[in-house]
Design a protein that fits this description.
With 284 residues, the protein is α/β, with parallel strands linked by helices. Helices cover 40% and strands 16% of the residues. The chain contains ten helices and nine strands. It starts with a strand and ends in a 9-residue tail after the last strand.
């Protein structure tokens, strides 16, 4: 029996990035292959026709490209960390139905997928935890989740499309607490500037009921984060669409224009924060 997805619910919001990865696999098979996305979509009782039509427009397809490329980028960061810490914890913050852990699983690491209880309920049906993997129902702003992560062999954290929903001060407190709790770990996430956040307000932030976007997290330059905590050993960033592999020459003219727009005017980036390996006192 297929799993039923209700319209206009949190379940439906989980379907959108999943469909994006599937559409990219179909339109850009030389760049993206995501059989798991197809498998999950095929297992759902949900009419994809309307969303697929929108996503296969030029603008919609670029949104799908963003989703798939973001997963690729964050997977690269996880795999890079695992080269030096093969038994590390791989922690997906605000996981939704993302399966990045399985894509980078080296057979030794441990996976933790964290999201709100209603999301984890759906995930347990569609992506039940496998060997060395746990689905944790937690609010990221309730820091007790940190005690459930075994980081004795290191930890790499990543978040895809998550912190846009957080107020800046909450992001600062979370990052500082993580740096204190997980010395030597790495955190990677996507960000954009305030202009990008305003554009989001007109689309999916509006749908989420968020109106005062100025209070929510955006980033003009990654160097802004360096003073957030004396537990940060480094803060670096790469282009979202070109930093890990340059897909610019694999797409058409319209998508090339959109990539330039995202790089120059919206400042879409993948940011990586490395936490100090030795505690240096309380965070700022």
């Amino acid at each position: 029996m297929k799993y039923h997805i209700e319209k206009n619910t949190v379940q439906e919001t989980l379907v959108i990035p999943l469909l994006g990865r599937l559409v990219c696999s179909e339109h850009f098979p030389e760049l993206f292959s995501d059989p798991e996305a197809k498998h999950i979509c095929d297992s759902l009782d949900y009419d994809f026709a309307e969303k697929r039509k929108k996503m296969e427009s030029p603008a919609g397809l670029f949104g799908a490209l963003e989703v798939a490329q973001r997963q690729y980028d964050l997977r690269c960061e996880a795999e890079a960390y695992l080269k030096d810490h093969p038994k590390a914890a791989v922690v997906n913050l605000g996981c939704g139905l993302d399966d990045t852990f399985r894509k980078c699983d080296n057979g030794l690491c441990r996976g933790y997928n964290i999201d709100l209880p209603d999301v984890i309920k759906v995930r347990n049906e569609l992506l039940p935890a496998g060997e060395r993997e746990q689905n944790l129902a937690c609010d990221l702003n309730d820091y007790t989740w940190m005690n459930q992560i075994d980081a004795s062999d290191g930890a790499v954290f990543f978040a895809a499309g998550v912190f846009y929903y957080f107020k800046t001060e909450d992001v600062r407190r979370l990052f500082s607490a993580m740096a204190e709790h997980f010395p030597g770990a790495v955190l990677a996430f996507d960000s954009c500037n305030e202009r990008g956040a305003k554009l989001m307000r007109k689309t999916w932030l509006k749908e989420a009921g968020i109106t005062d976007v100025s209070a929510f997290f955006s980033l003009e330059d990654e160097t802004e984060l360096r003073g957030w905590s004396n537990h940060f050993s480094s803060v670096t960033a790469k282009s979202y669409m070109r930093g890990y592999r340059d897909i610019y020459y694999n797409v058409g003219a319209f998508h090339k224009l959109m990539i330039r727009f995202c790089d120059t005017l919206v400042k879409m980036k993948i940011v990586k924060i490395s936490f100090s390996s030795v505690s240096t006192g309380k965070s700022n």
